[in-house]
Design goal:
Strand 10 and strand 11 form a beta hairpin. The chain starts with 7 loop residues before the first helix and ends with a strand. The longest helix has 53 residues. By secondary structure, it is α+β, with helices and mostly antiparallel strands. The strands form 3 sheets. Strands 6-8-9-11-10 form a 5-stranded mixed beta sheet, with helices on one face. It has a 4-stranded antiparallel beta sheet with strand order 2-1-4-3. The protein has 9 helices and 11 strands. Helix 7 runs antiparallel to helix 9. Bound molecules: adenosine-5'-diphosphate.
Length: 428
């Protein structure tokens, strides 16, 4: 700890000790002033009583002033105008002791009495000495106690710092100790732990993504390599070489698609794809997508019906949304066996939404996979989906395309009984 940058513990202790010193000093001064005033008050009271006694003896001549002085040891003086009637020996009292005087006078005479103030002064002095010794002791105790207490209170922070120091990208599953989740440090630790949990999840997702992406990229590369090696070592006819080059290009196509889709998703997730929204007629958009893919359905002898009852205006980025709908319809054609039925529809609902439905009579998606199919690289049937040439990113892109346009995507499907993807968008 340096003087210029004291620790929180020292700062807390100093503040606490400073505040306590101030309070004690104010209190001590108050007590001192109060005690002094009351001691003086009682001394004055006694002097007043002395004056009354002297006055009585003098006036009523019930006794002798000299005898009174002798008996009581009072110090006083009685004068009548300039004439001194009586004066005790050594009046006015002087010397080492301090005296306090009181006067009783009328037009004819004047009585002045004095009392030794030394006991009062001694009491006050003793009080001052006690305070001067006790205050530094109390402040010292406050500093020690405050330091220990601050150490105890701040102990969780030290423990948190130690744990946090040990946390690295590899040990993001570590959590800070939460001794009491209701206090400030407990809440801080909980918030920190929640942040760690999110980071952990993000790191895990990134790790899985890297592993999946590498795996996806390796497959076409392996195919290209093995096909190339076979062609290199054997002597093929021109037709044979053509075939080899053809299948290599197919894999290159797949790689290109994969890389493009990955790039698209990465940029989309980083929010780096600016959307240009405009009013779009969904029916026109859906008709365009269906027309583009109809040839694929025809190749598989599938029946593709398009239901577009009338214009449905939506505020969206047409290019992005088109990409999403294309992926849905492409999947429907891809996964539905030949002679299957595919239905595409766009309509507006009474609830003020625009809905697009893409339905097929294909194999369906088991309920357990409904959430996961939207994840990157997730495939219900790994082998079959890869054979169909999919990159495993189609639905992830479709979901982004819909959500980026303020909509949501729902999936209704029972394994073996076809699939229905419903896209709902706010109507403009
Ligand atoms: P892929 O490139 O494999 O099509 P997607 O992200 O588009 O990747 O789809 C993820 C998985 O969801 C697919 O592999 C498939 O198992 C399943 N799926 C998607 N659409 C359908 C559908 N219409 N019918 C049956 N299964 C589907």
């Amino acid at each position: 700890m340096s003087i210029a940058h004291p620790t929180v513990r020292s700062r807390l202790t100093l503040w606490h000790a400073g505040a306590l010193t101030l309070v004690i000093c104010v209190f001590a001064v108050g007590v001192f002033v109060f005690v002094r005033a009351s001691l003086h008050r009682s001394l004055d009271q006694r002097i007043r009583e002395d004056l009354a006694t002297i006055e009585k003896v003098y006036r009523e001549e019930t006794g002798d002033l000299g005898e009174l002085a002798l008996r009581t040891g009072m110090h006083f003086e009685v004068t009548e105008g300039p004439t001194v009637v009586y004066r005790t020996a050594g009046w006015p009292p002087t010397g080492a002791a301090a005296f306090r005087q009181g006067t009783l006078a009328d037009s004819a005479h004047r009585v002045v009495a004095a009392r030794d103030e030394t006991p009062v002064r001694q009491t006050l002095w003793a009080l001052a000495v006690i305070m001067a010794t006790a205050i530094p002791c109390a402040v010292g105790l406050a500093i020690i106690g405050g330091y220990l207490l601050a150490g105890r209170v701040l102990a969780p922070v030290g423990a948190m710092a130690d744990t946090a120091r040990r946390i690295t990208a590899e040990s993001l599953d570590a959590r800070l100790p939460v001794s009491n989740s209701a206090d400030e440090f407990g809440r801080l630790a909980s918030v920190f732990n929640e942040t760690l949990a999110r980071l952990d999840a993000a790191f895990e997702q990134l790790r899985r993504f890297t592993a999946d992406a590498s795996h996806e990229l390796r497959t076409p590369l392996t195919v290209i390599r093995s096909v190339g090696e076979v062609a290199l070592h054997g002597s093929l006819s021109t037709e044979g070489y053509r075939e080899v080059i053809g299948s290599m290009l197919e894999e290159v196509d797949r790689l290109t698609r994969l890389v493009e889709n990955l790039l698209l998703l990465t940029r989309a997730e980083a929010g780096r794809i600016p959307l240009t929204r405009a009013t779009v007629d969904l029916c026109e958009l859906v008709a365009g997508v269906s027309d583009g893919l109809r040839v694929l359905a025809e190749e598989k002898n599938q029946e593709l019906t398009v239901e577009l009852p009338g214009p449905v205006a939506v505020e969206c980025d047409a290019t992005v949304l088109r990409q999403g709908i294309t992926n849905l319809l492409h999947n429907a054609i891809k996964f539905t066996p030949p002679k299957g039925i595919i239905r595409v529809a766009a309509r507006s609902t009474v609830g003020g939404e625009a809905v697009i439905e893409v339905e097929d009579s294909g194999p369906g998606i088991p309920a357990a996979d409904h959430q996961r199919v939207f994840e990157r690289f997730y495939r219900v049937d790994q082998a079959r989906s890869r054979d169909t040439g999919g990159t495993g990113l189609g639905l992830a892109i479709a979901r982004w395309a819909v959500e980026a346009n303020g909509g949501r995507i729902e999936l209704e499907s029972v394994a073996g009984r076809g699939t229905l993807f419903r896209v709902a968008l706010p109507r403009s």
